[in-house]
Structure formats: C-alpha cells, structure tokens
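so my prof wants the structure for this chain in the tokens format not the other one, which i didnt know existed until like an hour ago. anyway here's the sequence
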Amino acid sequence: MRKHRVLLLVHEGLVPKEGIPIAEVEPAWRMEWDVVTTLRERGHELKVIGVHDDLTPIRSSIEEFKPDIVFNLLEAFDNICVFDQNVVSYLELLKIPYTGCNPRGLTLARDKALARKLLAYHRIPSPAFKVIPFGKKPVLPRKLGFPLIVKSLTYEGSASISQASVVANQEQLEKRVKFIHATLYTPAIVEQFINGRELYVGVLGNHRLRVFPVWEMSFTNMPADNWRIATERVKWNAAYQKKHGIETGEAKLEDDVAVKIKQLAARAFRALELSGYARFDFRMDETGNPYVIEANPNPQLAKVEDFAQSAIRSRMNYSRLLGRIMALGLEWQPHRMEID
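here's what i got, hopefully its the right format
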C-alpha cells in the first residue's frame, strides 16, 4: 500500500485532539478523530487544518505541505452549507486531487427541487413536490394532497425537521412554511409525505459503483401517534434515541426488494452526476413502493455511522473504506467527466 501526504480539511473547532483515548472523544468531532486516527494507522503523513471563512490556509498548506491529496470533511464554508461546492471548485482550480463528491454533483444534489427534476427525467421515483419561494405563501397544485412534509430546500441533516413538519391541513402548512422562511432563510419544499419505512443506501465509486446493503431506521418505542420520521432530535439527540428505541441496522427486506432499492440508488448516483461516495435516503410506502427522498454526497464518515457500518456489513472494514475513498479521489479527473 502506497503511503501518501494527506491534507485534511475540517471545520474550525473540530480539529481532533491528539493522544486521547476513544472514550474521551466528543461526539461533535468523532468523525474527524476516526478519520485522522485511521489514516495515521495506515501510515499516511497528515496535516490537519481547520477552515471557516478564509481559503488562504488551504492554499498556503498545499504550497508548503505539498500533499498528494486533500481529504475533504467540510460540509459548509462560513457556516453556509451551499458554499461547500465552492471549496471543492477551488481545489480543482489548484489542480489538487480531493476526496468526495465533485462540485457539480454537490450543486445538483443540494437543491432538492432540481434533484427531483433530474430523478423524474430518469424515471426514478420520488415524491411529488412544490417549492415555496422565500416570503411567499403556499399555493398547491391539485396533485398534492395532505399529509405533506415541509423542509428547507437546501439544508441537510434534518435541519429544523420535527413532528410539526408533517402537516395535515392548510393552516398547518402555512405555519410550517413561515417557520422555515423565518428560521433558515431559505425557500421551503413541500412534498407528498410517504408514510412508511425509513431506509438508507450507501454508494461508493466514480464510474464503477459499489452499493452497500440497505439500512433502516427503527422506532421501537416511538408513541403510536408520532410520525416515524428522521427528525433533528431523532438524528442527533442520544438521550431521545435511547428513550424511543431509535436505532439503525440492516433492513429486513425480500431479496428482490433490496435489489430494486440498491439499483435505484445506483441510478440516482449517476443521474445526479455524483462521485466519490454518497448516501441516499428512501421512504418505502405501505405497499412496498420505494421513493428516493434525498441524496447526501459526502455523508458522515464516523465509524459508528450508517455509511461506515453498511460498508463493514459488506465486508469492507473502516480502514479499507477510507483507503478506497482516497483511491477514488486520486483517480478522479474533473476534465474527463462523462455525461450520459
């Protein structure tokens, strides 16, 4: 295995502390700690820098450290999530290899409405939707009937998703759209709510893809009158997860259903022109029909998270997973993108 000089980009304040045991690692920077520790165990030479709102440290580190590749763990720039693709574009201008998704794929996947239109063109099922521009009241087409779910058009990570996000009438709809506009300052996307199972699929690759086993979020102790959805608390509040028996693991599906969902994930990966690695969120309705809800390029890479766990389930351990992600970054050539 060839050893590389690796420049690791993390958010300012999430630079892992060195020399501490795993028991003392804070959840906020568990991913960064896992990646740094594993890459060093593989023998790579690392330089880790925190990035906030200034590109200068990136360029100066590249000039001084002369890395073979940049391992990109940034999900935003200056706390603005839609700027993540701009950092990757900057790396391409500097002609330095990087891990994860290319800027065009990040742009297409980030805009949920644009992503849905591309999926529809490729006949990949996703819920019907309507975008409500910032400051406007919702006026819905006839094809959209309640219940609906209201989200930010561009935010990820279940930002501001709660039980109140699922609305059953016009009054609730207007209230929730106003909430998204007032708190996140983005347009809202209103989509048909698929009442059913919450599924996730990891995909790894550039042109040749490896699709990991279908994962599922379970809600063992969730009150019967609550929607089974991945709210902000469900995803990030450990005490809430324990109280309601929320956990993820390999989905128990008929073989043909699992194959169909994995095929849809691979098709969606290509339709959105992604590269590197991604996770797709699905909802499967009560009759067994799966719908692509969201594409997540560069998902969480902590060893305990779904993407890494599903890779491990497919006999790719964490060290090999990071090695493969780096290899995909080194082979990616932006000027040779293939378009179907």
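also thought this was worth mentioning. The chain has three domains: 5-98, 128-192, 195-336.
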